[in-house]
Amino acid sequence: MPKIIIRAQISRLNPIAQARSILLRSLLQGCWLLGWLLFVGQTLLADTPGTATIRGAINSPLAYLTQGAFHQKPIRFYFDNLLETLEFVEVPTALGAFEARILLPKPMPVLCEYDGQTTLLFLSPNDDIKMQFTGDNLTQTLRYEGKGAIHNQYCQQMYRQYGAETVENELRARREQLSSRAAYMPLCENYKQREQTLLRNFLDQNPQSSAAFQTWAKAEANYRYATRMAAWYFRSEDKQNDDYKMYSQTHFILNDNEAVVSNRYLEFLDYHLRNLSMRDPEDLRRQREQQRLPWVLRAIELAQTELQGKAREYATAKLLIDLIMAEYADTPRLYEQFAQQTQDRYALFAVEKQYAQFRAFMNAEPPADAQLYIIDEDYALSFEALLAKYKGKVIYIDFWASWCAPCLSELPYSQTLQKYYAKQDLIFLYLTPDDIESKWRGNIARYQLSGEHYLMSKPLKDEALFTLGIRALPHYAIIDKQGNVAIADARKPSNVLLRDDLDRLLQP
To answer: Who is most buried in 12, 329, 394, 471, counting CB within 10 A?
Structure first.
């Protein structure tokens, strides 16, 4: 008989990770803010955690109309950091006033977005800044006053002249046009010199600027250049024979512990590891593809050999977050290794925040009325026998997989259909070729899908695909009460016309 899954088993952390169990429990229970405060208050004693306050005044604030009423457009603040996902959203008053209190683990760059317009700030704990701008022209009308304003006057000028919209788009287009590094490199060097000149002039005029700001601003200018050059090699057409490895060894500083405050440095490290992984021997790359291993696993290996100190820890933290966001099943083992080895508490906590959500997903319980079956390879269940099990009822079949984004996007609509047809002779049959049981179970729990769920064996999958002529996922089919294929290529759950098809077949 196929194995029936009744309850997810909870994996255990090793002793080092268990030492942080109070924090993780608070995160898993949804008390993220409590966990954050514990971290800020108790584990970053060497830094200066606190709150930065921004008191805003928007001249001619913008509003949008919905359901017959006008609503003020919000202003959003989020960290300019690959390891952070926290954001702060404030809705101004009708007169444009707002106050944002931003929790900072240490001095950090923060992006501010309003109606699609973006600017960059550098905030330190205890900053108290007055920010004023016109609603439809953030970058050109922005003015700062108060404690911390001096740093942001530089940020405003820097972002206005050399922000992503003005420089990066141009360089991206030039990379497509130019055929050699020798032609592209002078463009990057020119921008680097201009950005460094702007910074030197500012520091000469404002010697009172903080050491944290100076360290960050210098790293940003240096590693914008490095990232731009790494991006050139990223598009190289002959990655097996170009000179990236030699160039990176002679032109890049890989291990720069002070630069970890800069998001440009973190982006550069990510680019560097990607570039190295793409230049692995063909047989190694082919082996990874055959085993369906994400490139991030190779990048983590490369980080251990190529990088040292904080560079290694921050680069690995970012890669782990990538795996967590992809819900990679082997993440717990990699997380535990990282937790044992890392010495940087900020990098560790950045990963822990994301990992807590991953554990909640992997350990979530499917609905009580969901039946989960794992069909072992040696269990001879045919597709015909599977359908016969539900003969006498209409069957709506959903072929899906955890790695299929369009499949997942339809599952909330499927749940709605389940509720609508709860008292009728309709079976919701979910079939998946997933090779990772925990992700399959986790998505059933995430979308709270009742019904009949089968993790198919290869023979069962092949027969089902052949019988219904399935070429791609997602795919849907309807079987009538006599066990015949009524619609081999049925409408998807979000299609309102699907109910007409089901109602017709459900009639006595």
So the answer is: 394
DSSP state of 96: S
Dihedral, 368, 369, 372, 373 alpha carbons, nearest 10? 130
Q: Are strands 50-59 and 128-134 parallel, antiparallel or unpaired?
A: parallel
Question: CA 391, 395, 399, 400 torsion: positive or negative?
Answer: negative
Buried b / exposed e along 137-155 (16+ C-beta atoms within 10 A): ebbeebebeeebbbbbebb
Cα–Cα distance for residue pair 25/30, rounded to 1 Å: 9
**Candidate from 15-24, 116-125, 410-419 with smallest mean pLDDT:** 15-24
Which single residue is written with the structure tokens 């009742």? 450
User: Cα separations (Å) of 53 from 45, 150, 240, 261, 328?
Assistant: 21, 15, 50, 21, 38
Domain 42-157 has CATH 3.40.190.150: no
Do 2 and 374 meet the contact criterion of CB atoms below 8 Å apart?
yes
**142-171 per-position pLDDT tens digit:** 999 999 999 999 999 988 888 767 788 888
Task: Provide mean pLDDT across the span 462-472.
Answer: 92
In the three-class reduction of DSSP (H, G, I as helix; E, B as strand; rest coil), residue 447 is classed as: coil
Evaluate if residue 11 carries a pLDDT over 50: no
- Sheet architecture: strand order including 3-5: 3-5, 370-374, 451-455, 426-432, 394-399, 475-479, 485-487
Q: Where in the chain is the domain with CATH 3.40.30.10?
A: 370-506
Contact 349, 39 (CB under 8 A): yes
Classified by CATH at the fold level, domain 370-506 comes out as: Glutaredoxin (3.40.30)
CA distances from 75 to 52, 66, 69 (A): 16, 18, 19
Identify the pLDDT of residue 164.
67
Strand runs (DSSP E) across 135-205, as ranges?
143-147
pLDDT-based confidence at residue 48 (cuts at 50, 70, 90): low
Q: Give start-end residues of each CATH 2.60.40.1120 domain in the chain.
A: 42-157
Other C-beta atoms lying within 10 Å of the C-beta of residue 397 = 25
Q: 181, 227 in Cβ contact below 8 A?
A: no
What is each CA distance from 352 to 60, 183, 329, in whole angstroms? 41, 43, 16
Helix (H, G, I), strand (E, B) or coil at 146: strand
